[in-house]
């Protein structure tokens, strides 16, 4: 939720250290048939006219056989969103078994000569310590690709990128000890600035299908996770609120967008549904009807019900969730959700415990975040710093400012864990 495209780009550029990249040329792939359009509402889901005539001379890639689709365990893993991959040892201290990193399509470039430096830098830090990694694939696209990537040619390019990435990671890192790798396809596409234009469930589903085909072609053992959607609440008043909260003029409610995905053929094109069940200011067990606002942890249950309505029993993965700290900064739209450091520690541990007790369908959960409060490339009052469970007194002087642990590190360290991984 607080992770914008601009921040993604800034993080990935800085994270690209001066190391040599090993590239793997992608196999030639092409796009399958486009999904039918679904008209959710006047602001949601028209099929892009850019598809018209764009499918000429495109060879169709056969669907990946379901027998190659891994069935991930349906219960918990313990993970976190990580800004600086060399901090992953903090996760191992806490008894966590997953890390989440980021892959920018723009940073990797337009194939076949992809740049995997940032990918390999993250994996080099992750893999010696953790055997399970989630990588989020996101925009903006490289030059020459539409933003949003809505045309058939755009999707074919994404499929090639996803295939090359999956093949590179499998070929390079499985022998180094990587046991499980999962890929989240995009971030919060129900917001205009994350999608790159007017949100459109049909367009996103087509991109998801292309990403799924590419990843399974590059690494049949990989797990594909759909994008976590920005939680919005469901009423018209909530949608108006969400536009202001996310500073996004065009927003589609998360449940509406999810239904649109299923209506356009998303089922079978992800192994797990991504979810962003941020907690607002409330404890994780707070019932939706008793929540302080439209953002609450148990939104995941309502997303789960949509899945069941469409006959989908795939797991849900909480690829982001968290609680933001009360701080002297003016956090604007996030201020209503602020909690104390003690509450953050209690709620994060409680979220894992609640899911363990009540959600047998919940897979790995990635708190947001481990260490964004330690890095120098975010403004002091950027909300992402205040979701973090570690920080520095002076992030611009790391040599003289050691990493400090907030109370949540200790509550999560002592949490009894029952990982399926």
In order across it, which strands form the biggest sheet? 1-8-7-6
| SSE arrangement, N to C | HEHEHHEHEHHEHHEHEHEHEEH
Mean pLDDT: 87
The residue ranges in which pLDDT falls below 50 over 5 or more consecutive positions are 4-67
Report how far the terminal alpha carbons are from each other: 26 Å
Number of H/I helices: 13
The whole-angstrom Rg is 20 Å
Bin the helical content: 25-40%
Largest sheet: 4 strands, parallel
Look at the helices and sheets and give the structural class. alpha/beta
Tell me the quaternary state.
Answer: single chain
Number of strands: 10
Shape: globular
Instruction: Tell me the β content.
Output: 5-15%
Protein described:
- The protein is of the alpha/beta class.
- The protein is built from 13 helices and 10 strands.
- It has helices spanning 5-15, 88-93, 105-108, 117-126, 152-173, 192-195, 201-218, 236-245, 254-263, 299-309, 341-358, 383-387, 407-414, and strands at 77-80, 98-104, 132-138, 180-185, 223-226, 273-275, 316-321, 362-367, 390-391, 404-405.
- The strands form 3 sheets. It has a 4-stranded parallel sheet, covered by helices on one side. Strands 2-3-4-5 form a 4-stranded parallel sheet. Strands 9-10 form a two-stranded antiparallel sheet.
- Helix 7 (201-218) crosses helix 9.
- The longest helix is centred in the middle third of the chain and has 22 residues, at 152-173.
- The chain is globular.
- The two termini are 26 Å apart.
- The model is unreliable at 4-67 (pLDDT under 50).
What is the gist of this entry?
By secondary structure, this protein is α/β, with parallel strands linked by helices. The protein has 13 helices and 10 strands. The strands form 3 sheets. Strands 1-8-7-6 form a 4-stranded parallel sheet, covered by helices on one side. A 4-stranded parallel sheet has the order 2-3-4-5. A two-stranded antiparallel ribbon has the order 9-10.
């Amino acid at each position: 939720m607080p992770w914008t495209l601009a921040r993604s780009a800034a993080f990935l550029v800085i994270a690209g250290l001066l190391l040599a990249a090993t590239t793997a040329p992608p196999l030639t792939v092409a796009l399958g048939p486009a999904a039918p359009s679904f008209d959710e509402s006047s602001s949601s889901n028209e099929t892009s006219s850019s598809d018209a005539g764009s499918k000429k001379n495109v060879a169709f890639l056969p669907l990946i056989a379901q027998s190659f689709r891994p069935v991930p365990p349906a219960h918990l893993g313990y993970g976190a969103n990580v800004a600086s991959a060399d901090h992953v040892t903090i996760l191992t201290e806490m008894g966590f078994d997953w890390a989440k990193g980021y892959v920018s399509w723009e940073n990797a470039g337009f194939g076949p000569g992809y740049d995997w430096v940032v990918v390999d830098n993250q994996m080099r830090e992750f893999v010696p310590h953790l055997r399970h990694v989630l990588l989020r694939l996101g925009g903006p696209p490289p030059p020459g690709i539409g933003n949003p990537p809505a045309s058939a040619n755009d999707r074919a390019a994404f499929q090639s990128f996803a295939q090359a990435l999956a093949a590179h990671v499998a070929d390079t890192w499985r022998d180094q000890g990587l046991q499980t790798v999962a890929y989240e396809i995009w971030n919060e596409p129900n917001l205009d600035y994350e999608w790159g234009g007017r949100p459109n469930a049909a367009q996103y589903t087509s991109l998801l299908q292309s990403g799924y085909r590419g990843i399974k072609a590059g690494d049949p053992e990989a797990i594909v996770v759909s994008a976590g959607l920005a939680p919005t609440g469901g009423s018209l008043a909530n949608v108006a609120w969400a536009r202001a909260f996310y500073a996004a003029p065009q927003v589609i409610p998360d449940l509406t967008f999810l239904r649109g995905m299923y209506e356009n053929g998303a089922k079978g094109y992800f192994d797990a549904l991504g979810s962003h069940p941020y907690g607002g200011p409330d404890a994780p067990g707070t019932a939706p009807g008793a929540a302080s606002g439209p953002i609450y942890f148990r939104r995941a249950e309502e997303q789960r019900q949509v899945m069941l309505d469409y006959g989908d029993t795939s797991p849900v993965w909480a690829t982001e969730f968290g609680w933001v700290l009360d701080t002297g900064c003016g956090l604007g739209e996030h201020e209503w959700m602020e909690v104390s450091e003690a509450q953050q520690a209690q709620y994060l541990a409680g979220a894992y415990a609640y899911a363990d007790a009540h959600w047998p369908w919940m897979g790995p959960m990635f708190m947001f975040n481990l260490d964004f409060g330690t890095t120098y490339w975010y403004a002091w009052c950027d909300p992402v710093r205040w979701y973090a469970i570690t920080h520095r007194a002076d992030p611009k002087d790391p040599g003289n400012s050691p990493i400090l642990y907030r109370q949540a590190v200790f509550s999560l360290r002592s949490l009894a864990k029952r990982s399926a991984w």
